[in-house]
Design a protein that fits this description.
four-stranded mixed sheet, mainly beta
């Protein structure tokens, strides 16, 4: 909450460059990648272009436990591909104009086939356009980013009981469009860096469901969400940059509108609403942020921060009713936003050149937390009914510890000079503390958030075969909001390993060719990755559980040019 992930693809630096790779693995997993890029000049000005493509197919595996399989059970396959095109112009070393287009599509088989071609499945097709201008001049810098994102989603859902007459199929399509712009401007003034900006985004969701078997029910749902944000901050560097102080304030205004649901029938709770025009909603909030980081010495620093965050609900959670991963998610047009107050302290310490230590502790109080809860069971379709609700106040607190150590860095042993041992541990307690609407949730942990998790392993780079081994542990996790024992995912650990080296022994051209062999879940540990048992009969064969894939292996060849 309150964070942003900004993905920036690499800008070409040479007249012509690129790479290709191909890998094959378990379950007939094929991955092919290719990148070609270039620019008119290798200095800091000129026109450049980049094209990348990716394809991934996987025949899949049967993720349903043996005792729950039926004659309709199939492998859960995967087929996805993407292409990205970028063209830009470095007008000056600090001024850039860039345009980008990305197309990607994905089809996922859900492990069941009765009559539909390819069986029960879901798929996405996404088209993303983006235009960006960045500039800098005499202490001033800024950004203008305009984007448009179209997502087409389709799903085939089918079910059957004890007779063919009970067969049911529903086809769903959802069109989602998001567009907006982000702009900011910064000014360096002595020790201060001032930044101000505007963030505007608008989203549209239009979903349709058609039951192709009697009683042939059609339903449609739609809604829009607009969010406008204005922000400003100041970063101050003091005492020869030993102290970095940051203070900021953001104002958000979010509005939902044009929400409605319409259907020509009423079949089970799935189609319970009838021609409903939803009420518009408007929310706003001020989000302050303050943080400070102090360098006691070059190898020791500490920081502390406080931030308030605001998050409007998703359109799908408010207005979309439809099938979702072995359940039916009901719309909630009265869903409200989340707000949170978060505190964090931490430190980074490097006592010697070959040892790095870091640690942090955090506490967040989330108000009107949006969580998915079970609200009933559809005996006709034999699915749990789920809904995203504001379940109350949630406290999230914990700590993160990490260490990285190179035991042979100062030894004059060429073979051992680049070995790194690493370990990290996370404790995260996310618990409902005040839910007036659902008092039975008070004291319960948030689903799918383990209390304990850690990673430990090593990376060894050498002139023979580079290798990396890591152990990943995930503690006990609950799969429902009431923390029931039959919906618990037991703790599990897996070991992943990788071997790789380039072909430098073949000379100049061999340095750009690399082969790797990866094994995930080396010991073939089997465990549940999801549980969603029926609220009416948790031990029935209709319980929805998912097993992990087990051991997987991949062989990859890559080449840079």
């Amino acid at each position: 909450m309150g964070g942003v992930i900004n993905i920036i693809t690499v800008k070409p630096t040479k007249y012509f460059e690129g790479s290709t790779s191909a890998s094959y693995g378990t379950d007939a997993d094929w991955q092919l990648r290719g990148v070609a890029a270039g620019r008119t000049s290798e200095d800091k000005t000129g026109v450049y272009a980049r094209v990348s493509a990716w394809s991934h197919t996987n025949r899949g595996y049967t993720e349903v436990p043996y005792q729950q399989q039926t004659m309709w059970s199939r492998k859960s396959f995967l087929d996805e591909k993407a292409i990205n095109n970028k063209i830009g112009w470095d007008l000056t070393p600090t001024n850039n104009l860039e345009f980008q287009y990305t197309h990607d599509e994905q089809t996922i088989g859900e492990g069941k086939q009765i009559f539909a071609y390819l069986g029960q499945q879901r798929g996405y097709t996404t088209d993303d356009w983006q235009g960006k201008f960045t500039f800098g001049y005499e202490g001033w810098s800024g950004l203008v980013n305009v984007y448009l994102n179209d997502i087409h989603y389709d799903r085939v859902n089918e079910s059957i009981g004890n007779t063919l007459a009970s067969y049911s199929r529903t086809d769903s399509t959802v069109e989602r469009t998001n567009y907006g712009f982000l702009t900011n401007i910064s000014r360096v003034w002595g020790p201060n860096t001032f930044t101000a900006g505007v963030d505007y985004k608008d989203g549209i969701m239009d979903g349709n469901d058609y039951t192709r078997t009697a009683p042939w029910v059609f339903a449609t749902d739609c809604g829009r969400l607009r969010n406008v944000g204005v922000f400003g901050q100041d970063q101050i560097r003091l005492f020869d940059e030993k102290l970095i102080f940051l203070g900021g304030l953001r104002y958000d205004n979010a509005t939902t509108y044009d929400g409605y649901y319409a259907t020509n029938g009423n079949r089970s709770p799935y189609f319970a609403k009838y021609n409903a025009q939803y009420e518009d909603h408007t929310w706003d909030d001020l989000s302050p942020r303050i943080s400070a980081k102090y360098f006691f010495m070059p190898n020791l620093s500490a920081y502390a921060s406080y931030g308030h965050a605001f998050r409007a609900p998703l359109l799908d959670d408010m207005y979309r009713t439809g099938y979702q991963m072995r359940s039916i998610k009901m719309s909630n047009p009265s869903l409200g936003p989340e707000r949170s107050d978060s505190f964090e302290i931490g430190s980074d310490y490097q006592p010697v050149d070959n040892l790095k230590l870091s640690g942090s502790g955090y506490y967040s109080q989330v108000y009107d937390y949006m969580g998915t809860v079970t609200v009933g069971y559809d005996s006709t379709l034999r699915y749990n009914l789920m809904q995203v609700q504001n379940i109350g106040t949630v406290h999230i607190w914990g700590m993160e510890l990490a260490a990285e150590y190179d035991p042979f860095k100062f030894m004059d042993i060429d073979l051992l000079k680049k070995m790194t041992l690493f370990a990290n541990y996370t404790y995260n307690e996310s618990r409902v503390v005040d839910s007036s609407e659902r008092p039975d949730l008070n004291g319960k942990l948030v689903p799918y958030v383990p209390l304990h998790s850690f990673n430990v392993g090593y990376t060894w780079l050498n002139r023979f075969i580079n290798n990396r081994v890591a152990l990943q542990y995930i503690g006990t996790t609950y799969a429902d909001e009431t923390n029931t024992s039959y919906n618990k995912i037991d703790p599990h650990a897996i070991i992943n390993a990788k071997l790789w080296r380039n072909f430098d022994f073949l000379g100049k051209y061999g340095e750009n060719v690399t082969m790797s062999f990866t094994v995930e879940n080396l010991l073939d540990s089997r465990y549940f990755t999801a549980r969603n048992n029926s609220v009416s009969s948790p031990t029935s064969v209709n319980a929805n559980e998912t097993l992990n894939v087990g051991r997987t292996m991949y062989l990859e060849m890559s080449c840079k040019f």
